[in-house]
Amino acid sequence: MWRFYSPYSVVVCESTIHCRNRFFCTVRPLHSKTAASLVCISHFSLFFFPTPPSLRFQDLLLTREFPALCLSMSFFFRRFFSATSPATMDAAQKKAQQLIDDNAVMVFSKSYCPYCNNTKRLLDSYNAKYKAIELNQEDDGDDIQAALAKITGQRTVPNIFINKQHIGGNSDLEAVASKGKDGKKLEELLKEAGAL
Ligand SMILES: N[C@@H](CCC(=O)N[C@@H](CS)C(=O)NCC(=O)O)C(=O)O
Fold first, then answer.
1. What does the DSSP assignment read for 138-164?
2. To test the ligand 1 pocket, which listed residue (123, 137, 154, 156) has its Cβ within 8 A of the most ligand atoms?
3. SUPFAM superfamilies of this UniProt entry (predicted)?
């Protein structure tokens, strides 16, 4: 437990948790046993959700400010529990790029996704070597998916690369298989990539 100065008062920090490079803790003013606030400490910022020291949380439920508090809390949770921090995004982007660079054919997939299964079946029918990672089974899968959205503009899986070139999703791969891409058949693209 530690103390620090806030714009509001000297506060005591209790029950910390560490999540996604940020610390979350509840705080209460030094001389109060009742009021508590939630604080998020990230690399760059410190956020406070102060509650008036005279109020207990139970009392707060009855105030006119309660809807506003709910709104700000929901914004807080969406922003800080689900968003990817810049450092995490950077690491995920590097990892995704490495996978794209190291593999003739790279498929970012999800194990339950039928479009992903179709993609694998299509590649198997060409006897192509490919690397697939199942984003739903990776700890950083969501971050990699967000990084891929940033790199390619595509958020869905499968997200397919041949020879470091972004192909798109399963329907795009099927279109390449039937019509080719830049005048080349899928087989040629796979050969050029070293996947056949
Ligand atoms: N037209 C796309 C459809 C892909 C799609 O809808 N994939 C679903 C999973 S089956 C998806 O990515 N949903 C969002 C998600 O899983 O985050 C394709 O052919 O690849």
1. STTHHHHHHHHHHHHS--SS-EEEETT
2. 156
3. Thioredoxin-like (SSF52833)
ipTM above 0.85, yes or no: yes
Q: Would you give the distance in Å from CA 3 to the centre of its chain? A: 32
Q: Pocket residues for ligand 1 (CB within 6 Å)?
A: 110, 113-115, 156-158, 169-171
Ligand 1 probe mutation, 82, 115, 154, most atoms within 8 A of CB = 115
144 alpha carbon, distance to own chain's centre = 7
Cα gap 151→44, rounded to integer Å: 25
Distance 115 CA to ligand 1 centre (A): 7
The bridge status of strand 131-134 relative to strand 105-109 is parallel
The rounded mean pLDDT for the chain is 78
Query: How many residues comprise the chain?
Result: 196
| Nearest CA, atom 15, ligand 1 | 156
What does the longest C-alpha to C-alpha distance in the chain come to? 75
Q: Which residues pair with 38 in a beta bridge?
A: 26, 49
Tens of pLDDT, residues 19-58: 555 555 565 555 555 555 555 454 444 444 454 555 555 5
Residues 91 and 86: their CA atoms lie apart, in Å, by 9
